[in-house]
Automatic annotation (TrEMBL):
Pathway: Carbohydrate degradation; glycolysis; D-glyceraldehyde 3-phosphate and glycerone phosphate from D-glucose: step 2/4; Carbohydrate biosynthesis; gluconeogenesis. This is Glucose-6-phosphate isomerase. Coiled coil: none annotated. Signal peptide: none annotated. It catalyses: alpha-D-glucose 6-phosphate = beta-D-fructose 6-phosphate. The gene is pgi. It is an enzyme of class 5 (isomerase). The active site is at E359 (proton donor), H390, K514. PROSITE patterns: P_GLUCOSE_ISOMERASE_2 (PS00174), P_GLUCOSE_ISOMERASE_3 (PS51463).
Amino acid sequence: MNAEGRSRLDQMPEWTALGAHRARLGDPQLRDLFAQEPERAGRYTLRVGDLHIDYSKHLITDETLLLLRELAAATGVAELRDAMFRGEKINVTEGRSVLHTALRAPGSAVIEADGQNVVPAVHAVLTKMATFADRVRSGDWTGHTGRRIRTVVNIGIGGSDLGPAMAYEALRAHTHRDMQFRFVSNVDGADLHEALRDLDPAETLFVIASKTFTTIETITNATSARAWLLDGLGAGEDAVAQHFVAVSTNAEKVAEFGIDTANMFEFWDWVGGRYSYDSAIGLSLMIAIGPEHFREMLAGFHLVDEHFRTAPAEENVPLLLGLLGIWYGNFFDAQSHAVLPYSHYLSKFTAYLQQLDMESNGKSVDREGRPVQWQTGPVVWGTPGTNGQHAYYQLLHQGTKMIPADLIGFARPVEDLAPRLVAQHDLLMANLFAQGQALAFGKTPDEVRAEGVAEELVPHRTFRGNHPTTTILATELSPSVLGQLIALYEHKVFVQGAVWNIDSFDQWGVELGKLLARRVEPALTDGAEVPGLDASTAALVATYRELRGR
Ligand code: F6P
């Protein structure tokens, strides 16, 4: 650390050593690495909790791993990690602690933010959520007309939507199947319209989830939902209390909106939006899966937290995954990272990780405000693997880009599938293993020729291979395993932000668009003169008004 802050990453000897090592490796081939090391698959496998992680199909040697760990040590990853767990204000630009790990700590833990042990409050909210969730699930909590709640509509956006929506899909097999759960986020009225069009207001509960309770999309949708409810019931404001609950850090705004703060589930400014679905933001999820499963999920998170906090560097899986991302992003110029789950239930998993990773590490100044001179967070993308195979895997296999990928799969399908569908599981997983193999080892021109392929087609049918993947396997997608997976990625993102010396916990980059949208809206609705519109945008606004018939 120098007087102005941490030394520049690209001037650190550990960084330079990695660059030199990369140059020495030249064009490493997975085929060669595996041929040279018969033990590689076993040696490059780690386990954390229920997760089995194979990282043998990476363009690395023992020396690479050593140098990456030295980089982590030199950049103070462990020190920043410990500061995070201790509740220090490592979110420097907002002056906040970063304590999502406290949300899943056992009741006996002592974790302080601003000198206050936050654990009792965390558990008090969990208990309040559990009581409420049980009442809704059992039918004890009724709507204004005395009918039981059949549908829960979560209204939120970003971290207040993606987490509960993703986890609801992931754990669908564990949900209350006699109830429906819907997630509305988009300010496009079509989202709310489609969510509500076949619902009975008398049986509908809205969970308004917003950390700040000022987010325009959420407040607009919540206001429209309230009007829909009151119109549908033909009732007055007093009906709101039985049909609207809020999840927020902002009691004042919740009350201003007209929701009784007795029906508010609290969380705290030391929980980032994209790290919040294990807080009260998970209320609709808890109603869906029940408090018991929610607690199992928290235990899964906690298990990986403890691993990250205590495991030695050589066995520390989030550290390893974070460093591998740095290896490719900074030393191979990889621009993106694909997350490819082989599970229908993980259909929203990658979308969730997009916010987690890209909102955290999409930064171009360091923690001291200096422009960074190195690549930071990758573009994270992907959909469930089998569908991707028939869409974009072509580019993964034969395109020109390096795209490291994670393949995620489970040994068992969820328990309530019909026997015929259970049998399909081996085919699903055969695809995962086949893709890992094809991406890594490809097919050489000689192998293609040996199949009798005409010479002019050989280049087209050759697979270069050498595409790095991590394979993550678990027995089944249980609540605990979901918690373990999410915590794994949270800490991976943390590691990368720490090495790059960026603040992974702010998100100033979303502000400008919000501000301009507010400014431009009157131009669309009333044709108001909006100062400062650039010529292109002004022309687009004029065209919009014309097309809109205004
Ligand atoms: O605009 C980005 C963001 O602030 C995210 O970080 C957050 O998850 C989302 O908006 C929703 O914010 P809120 O929960 O305050 O409505």
